[in-house]
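Private note to self, pasted from the team thread so I don't lose it. Backbone tokens:
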């Protein structure tokens, strides 16, 4: 090697070593910071939410994914639907709350926003305590993640046990400091903000529905079961009742409805209060204008049947304006655009709040009937040929099914929280365009609603659920509605 090349090598080699050392020194804090932030991210997602019980309801408390702003709303998970809280919380680390259990009786006032049960501020104190417990658990979980990762690294690099102990202690300590900063500084105002929450109504900034009083009129003690809900429960589009009154006709109540089917199977006197177009607010908890008639709240009429041992609920489609969404979907190039989805999510957020009010009042019925909440059947199968003239293809059907799935998730989770039974009828093999469809077609009187056979399928699904629940059949003559 020439002397000139040797001189150049000697000059380059120290520079190369210096650069590598500098890069290594710089990489250590970067890697450490990435590890701490990654552990925090993982811990927020896997740390179990802490349950608090107050005022007859159980709420789980945890942390939402950290945001970028200096303050903002928390998250309320209500039956699978995420709703931004009305109160704003300081810092990027904000609470996530999930309603998981509703009970009945004297707690009704607390559930609907009163402070009479448990004392003023009882819920807020419990939520704040749950938040602090969650912070401790999250700190332990994140430190555990760091220790696990560092144990793997030190094992691969074959550190001595002393060096390994130092590294693990340093990592756990650093993670603890990050959590202290995160919860003590970045979320220092969260406990006090939670203490100001007196009910779930405070979280969403909306007053819950006033408890419905029984409708005027004589007691209907002969009624064993009551059906409340919308046009699907009414059986619209099928054979009319033999002696319908004006409200029966206006509501589209049918002799083929699953209420009538259950009456025949069990030898029950079933009161069918379901009405086409009914929503929770205007139909079940409030009065409903139906053509030229005004229907009293279905829950108010239900309360006139004090001996009813079964209540079946079928509601949700009209709350979400499902018929309008379906027509819009058919007329649009695609129905999974951002504007339509944003509108649907807004309707879902409103629905789950109304649904909580309904469940709360059903849970408070003094006779404690067996309550069944019917989910909606999927009307679409693989064959969509009968919908092609309307512009509905598989992509649009998938979008509609996805939204229907969200509604059914809310119905199921709400029923579970209230201790009710949730039933999912299946029309498999008998969907819209099949040769023996359980669904009324585009040219029928009530498109997408069940046929008489579909109503029977729903009745059979409910009957199976009642049998599992041990609900006995009544030995009385079958009566008119």
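Design output:
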């Amino acid at each position: 090697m020439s002397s000139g090349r040797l001189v150049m090598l000697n000059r380059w080699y120290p520079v190369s070593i210096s650069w590598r050392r500098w890069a290594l020194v710089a990489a250590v804090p970067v890697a450490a910071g990435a590890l701490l932030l990654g552990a925090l991210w993982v811990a927020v997602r896997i740390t179990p939410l802490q349950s608090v019980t107050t005022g007859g309801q159980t709420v789980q408390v945890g942390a939402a994914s950290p945001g970028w702003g200096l303050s903002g709303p928390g998250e309320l998970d209500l039956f699978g639907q995420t709703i931004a809280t009305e109160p704003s919380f300081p810092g990027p680390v904000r609470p996530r709350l999930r309603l998981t259990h509703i009970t009945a009786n004297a707690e009704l006032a607390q559930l609907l926003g009163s402070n009479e049960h448990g004392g003023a501020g009882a819920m807020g104190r419990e939520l704040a305590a749950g938040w602090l417990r969650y912070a401790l658990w999250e700190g332990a979980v994140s430190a555990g993640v760091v220790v696990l990762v560092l144990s793997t690294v030190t094992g691969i690099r074959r550190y001595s046990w002393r060096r390994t102990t130092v590294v693990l202690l340093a990592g756990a300590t650093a993670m603890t400091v990050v959590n202290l900063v995160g919860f003590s500084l970045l979320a220092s105002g969260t406990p006090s903000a939670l203490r100001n929450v007196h009910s779930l109504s405070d979280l969403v900034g909306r007053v819950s529905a006033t408890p419905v009083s029984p409708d005027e009129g004589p007691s209907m003690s002969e009624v064993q079961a009551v059906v409340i809900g919308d046009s699907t429960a009414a059986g619209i589009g099928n054979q009319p009742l033999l002696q319908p009154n004006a409200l029966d006709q206006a509501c589209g109540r049918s002799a083929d409805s699953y209420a009538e089917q259950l009456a025949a199977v069990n030898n029950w006197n079933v009161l069918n209060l379901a009405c086409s177009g009914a929503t929770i607010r205007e139909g079940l908890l409030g009065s409903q204008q139906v053509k030229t008639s005004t229907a009293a709240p279905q829950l108010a009429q239900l309360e006139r049947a004090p001996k009813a041992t079964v209540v079946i609920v079928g509601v949700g489609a009209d709350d979400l304006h499902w018929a309008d969404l379906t027509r819009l979907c058919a007329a649009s190039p695609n129905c999974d655009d951002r504007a339509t989805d944003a509108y649907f999510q807004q309707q879902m957020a409103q629905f789950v709040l109304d649904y909580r009010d309904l469940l709360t009042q059903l849970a408070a019925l003094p006779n404690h009937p067996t309550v069944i909440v019917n989910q909606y059947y999927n009307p679409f199968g693989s064959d969509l040929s009968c919908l092609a003239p309307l512009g509905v293809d598989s992509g649009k059907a998938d979008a509609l099914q996805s939204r229907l799935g969200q509604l059914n998730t809310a119905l199921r989770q709400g029923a579970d929280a209230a201790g009710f039974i949730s039933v999912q009828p299946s029309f498999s093999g008998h969907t819209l365009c099949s040769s023996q469809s359980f669904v009324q077609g585009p040219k029928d009187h009530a498109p997408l609603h069940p046929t008489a056979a579909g109503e029977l399928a729903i009745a059979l699904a409910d009957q199976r659920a009642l049998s599992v629940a041990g609900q006995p059949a009544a030995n009385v003559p079958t009566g008119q509605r």
